[in-house]
Amino acid sequence: xxxxxxxxxxxxxxxxxxxxxxxxxxxxxxxxxxxxxxxxxxxxxxxxxxxxxxxxxxxxxxxxxxxxxxxxxxxxxxxxxxxxxxxxxxxxxxxxxxxxxxxxxxxxxxxxxxxxxxxxxxxxxxxxxxxxxxxxxxxxxxxxxxxxxxxxxxxxxxxxxxxxxxxxxxxxxxxxxxxxxxxxx
Length: 185
Description:
By secondary structure, the chain is an alpha/beta fold. Helices cover 42% and strands 13% of the residues. The strands form 2 sheets. Strands 5-1-6 form a 3-stranded parallel sheet, with helices on both faces. It has a 3-stranded antiparallel sheet with strand order 2-3-4. A hairpin with a 3-residue loop joins β2 and β3 (56-58). Residues 1-19 and 179-185 have low confidence and may be disordered.
């Protein structure tokens, strides 16, 4: 199965690369929006999260680091080549959960390199790259606890990461479970 996934992933990657326009065709097109801004200024401004390990964080040397940063560095190289620029300056700007989307919308940053979840609401405001990771919520409990499902957590204290989506999901699921246990009057 892994071999099949790897083969399909490789084939899709090659197909994606073949679909990219050549540097000559990009130069011949009338650039607009962000690409025009980048070409005219010779700089790209990238937003990054300072504490979204392992995707985007401030490294020990004070510079942005992480998986998403590595991907964005490759994107910068490709943009520089596609725009036919001999040099492309990179300006790194720290963003937070609250400022990342508004910074893209306002043009303060050209690209955000972090772990922002692609949602329909966010798609109404900004564009997203292809998926670069898959994530999901889960519970971590001691084996000896005998907790096997969400229902087994009834009446127990739980810890949730400080992010709005997991908290909302837990609250919604908890409400559904408790309303299902109530008997109609």
